[in-house]
């Protein structure tokens, strides 16, 4: 993917890591294959993309780039839903990784910024995929919680990207009312 971006666009100036995957795999009886899949997508893929984006920026002397990790409110608190505890673990990792990335960027003396945006439920196919075998449970999620729309997340990303060069927005928690 990054080779194609380099070939077609010369490189990456802004990276928005928006991969997110959940399986209904509880800690006490979940499948290790589901846990591994969530870890690979939600944590390792994010790290690989952040690394490759940084390398692209460094190679081209881009000193004002931005890496935005789309996280989750689950990366800040544990909700009482056993199906989501391992997913929550991966999002806590994203919180820690974004802060670690920010610290490493400072050590490198760069002005490249790193931000974590943590939305609550966004009305997408995420929940219907999570509960693909139980459409009633999927529908209840959007009944129980005021969902955000994709455009709300776009607004947060636009806000972060429009911040003055001397401003580091480290974290945005985005919740529906």
From TrEMBL:
Keywords on record: Oxidoreductase
Listed EC numbers: 1.1.1.270, 1.1.1.62
Give the reaction(s) catalysed. Answer: 17beta-estradiol + NAD(+) = estrone + NADH + H(+); 17beta-estradiol + NADP(+) = estrone + NADPH + H(+); a 3beta-hydroxysteroid + NADP(+) = a 3-oxosteroid + NADPH + H(+)
Among SUPFAM superfamilies, the record links this protein to: NAD(P)-binding Rossmann-fold domains
Pfam families registered for this protein in UniProt: adh_short
- What Gene Ontology terms describe what this protein does at the molecular function level? 3-beta-hydroxysteroid 3-dehydrogenase (NADP+) activity; estradiol 17-beta-dehydrogenase [NAD(P)+] activity
The pathway where this protein functions is: Steroid biosynthesis; estrogen biosynthesis
* InterPro entries tied to this protein: NAD(P)-bd_dom_sf, SDR_fam
Is Membrane set as a keyword in this record?
Answer: no
Family membership noted in the UniProt record: Belongs to the short-chain dehydrogenases/reductases (SDR) family.
Its function, per the record, reads: Catalyzes the conversion of the 17-keto group of estrone, 4- and 5-androstenes and 5-alpha-androstanes into their 17-beta-hydroxyl metabolites and the conversion of the 3-keto group of 3-, 3,17- and 3,20- diketosteroids into their 3-hydroxyl metabolites. Exhibits reductive 3-beta-hydroxysteroid dehydrogenase activity toward 5-beta-androstanes, 5-beta-pregnanes, 4-pregnenes and bile acids. May also reduce endogenous and exogenous alpha-dicarbonyl compounds and xenobiotic alicyclic ketones.
User: What protein name is recorded for this chain?
Assistant: Dehydrogenase/reductase SDR family member 11
- In the UniProt record, the gene name given for this protein reads LOC102200285
